[in-house]
């Protein structure tokens, strides 16, 4: 039975979507970090070809929306690759679902069972505390501890700057040894994008 955090919406019901998968066996996923920006920019450019051209408000916001897509995709891919569990031998899947006034991002990766509890505690903080206050606290903590790789600032920027809705789904894919996947969903409403 999956564990859900936030208002997770299953993918689907979109005429336009794009899925990218990163194979776990062809090249170590952590070595692909430098390509995240390329993937993020590609997906943002791809959205531009399907962006609504009849809505005057959206036409004026295209650059801001493209920047938001690029940032969110880059952050989601970085997190997925940084925290991916090689033991699970699961491909990382990145998908974007396009709607008239919003876009949903999904990224799925393997996660080390030992990291699940700590990550879920952080998710609960994200979902229950004021994002602006948590953002300031995490910024201060990052300045004081430059070795902290789990600051969560990317998620906080998505919440504060891009007004994203975030949710997560954890699935056990193997009981013995225990292997899990986590799917992160981010949704932005184009009309909320500045």
Could you characterize the architecture of this molecule?
- This protein is of the alpha+beta class and 194 residues long.
- The protein has one domain: Heat Shock Protein 90, CATH 3.30.565.
- The protein contains 6 helices and 6 strands, in the order ββαααββαααββ.
- A 6-stranded antiparallel sheet has the order 1-5-6-4-3-2, covered by helices on one side.
- A hairpin with a 3-residue loop joins strand 3 and strand 4.
- Helix 1 packs antiparallel against helix 3 and helix 5 runs antiparallel to helix 6.
- The protein is globular, with a radius of gyration of 17 Å.
- The N and C termini lie far apart (38 Å).
Key attributes of the depicted protein:
6 helices, 194 residues, 42% helix, 6 strands, Heat Shock Protein 90, single chain
In short:
Helix content is 42%, strand content 25%. It is α+β, with helices and mostly antiparallel strands.
């Amino acid at each position: 039975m999956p564990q859900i955090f936030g208002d997770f919406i299953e993918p689907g019901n979109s005429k336009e979507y794009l899925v990218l998968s990163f194979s776990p066996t062809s090249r170590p996923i952590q070595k692909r970090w430098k390509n995240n920006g390329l993937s993020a920019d590609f997906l943002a450019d791809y959205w531009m070809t399907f962006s609504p051209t009849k809505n005057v408000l959206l036409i004026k916001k295209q650059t801001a929306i493209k920047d938001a897509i690029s940032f969110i995709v880059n952050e989601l891919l970085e997190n997925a690759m940084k925290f991916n569990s090689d033991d699970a031998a699961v491909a990382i899947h990145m998908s974007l679902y396009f709607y008239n006034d919003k876009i949903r991002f999904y990224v799925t990766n393997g996660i080390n069972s030992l990291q699940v509890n700590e990550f879920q505690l952080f998710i609960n903080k994200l979902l229950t505390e004021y994002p602006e206050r948590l953002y300031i606290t995490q910024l201060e903590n990052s300045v004081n501890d430059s070795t902290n790789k789990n600051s969560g600032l990317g998620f906080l920027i998505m919440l504060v700057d891009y007004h994203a809705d975030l949710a997560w789904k954890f699935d056990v894919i193997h009981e013995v040894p225990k292997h899990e996947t986590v799917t992160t969903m981010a949704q932005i409403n184009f009309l909320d994008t500045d």
